[in-house]
Amino acid sequence: MNLRYSDPDGRPATPWMACSGIGITRCLQTAADLNRDRHGLRWAPGTGPADVHLVVLRADQPDMRDRADRLARSLTKRRVSVFVDDRPLPAGDKLRYARLLGLPHAAVLSPDHPDTEIEVIARSTGRTTRTDLSHIADQNPFNHI
């Protein structure tokens, strides 16, 4: 994990993790506790279970499932980890769950948006941006949002 700390002399050192109670689960618990608000978790990029929470509205429609699959594959090729929510739930429930889970970004695919567009919600700020998929060309397209 390349975890480092500064020793008393200011030199970088590697911690030893053993049965003293400071293990990976304690580190995860601390990170979750430090990065939360009244709505739930707020994972910093690279620390949570995924980078993007892909919320697929009307996933029961074949064209929406196809759009979600194409986007998830495209993001995965760019080394963006994706959590896909294609459950048959109302949009509000899915968006509340996305905020509670706290991945850095939620990307909403909706049948009300053009095929080439997604709505991106930054969890840390709540800022919502509509993004044209043709502009997503860099390694992690969510870094700038």
How would you describe the overall organization of this protein?
The protein is an alpha/beta fold and 145 residues long. The protein has 3 helices and 9 strands; from the N terminus they run ββαβββαβαβββ. The protein has a 5-stranded mixed beta sheet with strand order 6-5-7-8-9, with helices on both faces. The longest helix has 16 residues, at 62-77. It is elongated. The chain starts with a strand and ends in a 13-residue tail after the last strand.
Q: Categorize the overall geometry.
A: elongated
**Sequence of secondary-structure elements:** EEHEEEHEHEEE
Quickly give the structural class: alpha/beta
Number of helices: 3
What is the residue-mean pLDDT, rounded to a whole number?
85
- Strand arrangement, major sheet: 6-5-7-8-9
In angstroms, what separates the terminal alpha carbons? 27 Å
Number of strands: 9
Stretches where pLDDT is under 50 for at least 5 consecutive residues are none
How helix-rich are the residues, as a percent range? 25-40%
Specify the biggest β-sheet: 5 strands, mixed
Strand content: 15-25%
Radius of gyration: 18 Å
Task: Give a brief description.
The chain is of the alpha/beta class and 145 residues long. It has helices spanning 24-34, 62-77, 91-101, and strands spanning 5-6, 12-13, 36-37, 40-41, 52-56, 82-85, 105-109, 117-122, 128-132. The chain has three helices and nine strands, in the order E-E-H-E-E-E-H-E-H-E-E-E.
Highlighted features:
single chain, 145 residues, alpha/beta, five-stranded mixed beta sheet, two-stranded antiparallel sheet
